[in-house]
Each structure stands twice: as structure tokens, then as C-alpha cells.
């Protein structure tokens, strides 16, 4: 028996289906189901019974969930004993991220959060990739991380923003419909300069979909990207809503859609108050930005 299993059982009881519980925890549904079954085998009891499309607790399951809540609250209380500081300094917050996502922190999240909590001291823990982020959270070198989702099942994830990747092209460009990622092979693209965070982000995306375009322009002058597209130099692969004025150009979605989910991630332990505040702040800031983009 472990804390992860207890958290999964409690979430399933709260949400009524394993699918909804997995979505709330942002873990794979098969992983959650497997953990619950393993706990049932270990205890030798059935915790859930099917009811329509969902599940309900069995009588013994109700008892287990009641005790699981007590155990999880006790663990949080014990971990909370290490949070208090007595040296008079402001609270420390360590946030891990990759080079590609660091701009999300330094560009808008940290400055806005610092205005709300000027005493908080935020340190960015730079990591070389997802595995390094996972290690930093597991061994306590970071309180939170901003990362691409999904993440391993032993980490808690809070989706913040889903970004759709679109192709912005001159009106005369002919492409196969529906537009698939394979259409990018050999296509001339306006791309960020090599070695920068934006280029690393785009290269990661292209590797994920297995596409090999041809760089027509490589520049970090983002204000000029759409100008090069209008001039017919190449097309642009970027996020819907992250471009200022695409008037006169053709914006196409991919089929199946290409998207990127970004979220805040932490280990299953009680977060320091400043980390909980940052998590709540980030969710609210992301909601506000989505509202502004749709106005």
C-alpha cells in the first residue's frame, strides 16, 4: 500500500468514474485503474462496484476511503511541519523548467506574481529536459515545475494551457486537405533562430510529429515573421492566438490536431504556502489570458 494508491482511490470515489479521476489528476486512466486493482488485490477486498457508466464504493470501500482521507490529511500535516520559517526572510519558491518554457516564467508569470507577493523569493531551476524536471521534483530540489504534460503518474499535474499549433501560409500555397503533419515534410518554413528557446521548442514539436520542413528564414525577430509569410518566403508553424495579425493569410488547423498542454507539476507532498499561492495565481492568470484572447 502506498500514498499514490490511496490518492487514486479517494479521487475515484470523489469523481465517480476512473476516467474522470484520472483526468482530474492528469494521469493515464490505465495507470490509475491498475493502481486501484493492485490495492484491491493487496487488501483482498473489492473497493468499487460498477454502476451504469461509473463506479460506486462498496461498503468496505467506504471504510477504506474514510481511513484513506484521514491518512492523507495526516501526511499533509506532517509535511507541513517543515514549511514554517523562523529566520524572518520571505518565503522561497523554486520552480523548475526547461529552456523552451523558461520564458513562460520570466516573461509574465514571475513578474506578475512578484507584484502580488513582493516578499516571495523565486528561483528558477533550469533543467535540460523532462527527465531532469522529474528528478528535481522527486528529490526536492524544486517545489513546482512548469512542464509539458503528461508527466509520470507519481507526480501531480495541473493543466494550465492547451495550445493549438496551426500553419500560417500565403493565400496561394496549395496543401493537401485535410492538413496532416506529413505535409510539413520539405515545406519551406519561417523558423526561429537556431540555439534559442523558441527554436528548441519548435524542434521538439517537429520531432514529436515526425516532420522535416526546410528552413526558409531563421530569425528571432518575431515581429517580422508574418511579413516574410506575406512576401511568400515561407509558411509559419506556431500557436493559434500567439500571433498578432494574420489578416490576408491562411490559417489552417491540422488533422488530427497538433496541440501542446502545459501545466504546473509537483510531487505528491504538501506544498509550501507560497507554492500553493503560485499555483492558484497561475491558474487564474491563464484563465484571464484565455478570456482576453477570445475577446
Fold and architecture overview:
With 295 residues, the chain is an alpha/beta fold. It folds into 3 domains: 78 residues, Winged helix-like DNA-binding domain superfamily/Winged helix DNA-binding domain (Arc Repressor Mutant, subunit A, Orthogonal Bundle); 101 residues, Periplasmic binding protein-like II (D-Maltodextrin-Binding Protein, domain 2, 3-Layer(aba) Sandwich); 99 residues, D-Maltodextrin-Binding Protein, domain 2 (3-Layer(aba) Sandwich). The protein is 44% helix and 25% strand. The protein has 9 helices and 10 strands. It has an 8-stranded mixed sheet with strand order 4-3-5-10-6-9-7-8, with helices on both faces. It has a two-stranded antiparallel sheet with strand order 1-2. The longest helix is centred in the first third of the chain and has 22 residues. About 2% of the residues have low confidence. Belongs to the LysR transcriptional regulatory family. Keywords: DNA-binding, Transcription, Transcription regulation.
Summarize the structure.
The chain is of the alpha/beta class and 295 residues long. It folds into 3 domains: 78 residues, Winged helix-like DNA-binding domain superfamily/Winged helix DNA-binding domain (Arc Repressor Mutant, subunit A), CATH 1.10.10.10; 101 residues, 3-Layer(aba) Sandwich (D-Maltodextrin-Binding Protein, domain 2); 99 residues, D-Maltodextrin-Binding Protein, domain 2. It is 44% helix and 25% strand.
Amino acid at each position: 500500500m502506498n500514498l499514490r494508491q490511496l490518492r487514486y482511490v479517494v479521487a475515484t470515489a470523489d469523481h465517480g468514474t476512473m476516467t474522470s479521476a484520472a483526468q482530474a489528476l492528469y494521469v493515464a486512466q490505465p495507470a490509475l485503474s491498475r493502481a486501484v486493482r493492485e490495492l484491491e488485490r493487496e487488501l483482498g477486498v473489492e473497493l468499487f462496484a460498477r454502476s451504469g457508466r461509473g463506479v460506486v464504493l462498496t461498503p468496505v470501500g467506504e471504510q477504506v476511503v474514510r481511513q484513506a482521507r484521514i491518512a492523507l490529511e495526516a501526511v499533509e500535516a506532517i509535511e507541513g511541519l517543515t514549511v514554517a520559517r523562523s529566520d524572518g526572510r520571505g518565503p522561497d519558491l523554486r520552480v523548475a523548467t526547461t529552456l523552451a518554457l523558461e520564458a513562460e516564467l520570466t516573461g509574465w508569470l514571475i513578474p506578475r506574481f512578484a507584484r502580488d507577493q513582493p516578499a516571495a523569493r523565486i528561483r528558477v531551476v533550469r533543467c535540460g529536459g523532462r527527465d531532469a524536471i522529474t528528478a528535481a521534483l522527486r528529490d526536492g530540489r524544486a517545489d513546482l515545475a512548469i512542464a509539458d504534460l503528461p508527466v509520470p503518474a507519481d507526480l501531480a499535474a495541473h493543466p494550465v494551457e492547451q495550445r493549438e499549433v496551426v500553419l500560417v501560409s500565403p493565400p496561394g500555397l496549395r496543401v493537401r486537405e485535410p492538413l496532416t503533419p506529413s505535409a510539413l515534410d520539405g515545406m519551406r518554413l519561417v523558423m526561429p533562430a537556431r540555439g534559442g528557446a523558441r527554436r528548441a521548442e519548435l524542434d521538439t514539436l517537429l520531432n514529436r510529429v515526425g516532420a522535416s520542413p526546410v528552413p526558409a528564414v531563421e530569425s528571432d525577430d518575431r515581429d517580422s515573421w508574418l511579413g516574410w509569410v506575406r512576401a511568400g518566403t515561407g509558411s509559419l508553424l506556431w500557436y493559434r492566438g500567439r500571433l498578432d495579425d494574420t489578416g490576408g493569410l491562411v490559417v489552417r488547423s491540422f488533422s488530427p490536431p497538433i496541440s501542446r498542454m502545459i501545466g504546473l507539476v509537483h510531487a505528491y507532498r504538501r506544498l509550501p504556502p507560497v507554492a500553493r499561492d503560485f499555483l492558484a495565481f497561475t491558474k487564474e492568470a491563464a484563465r484571464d489570458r484565455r478570456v482576453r484572447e477570445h475577446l
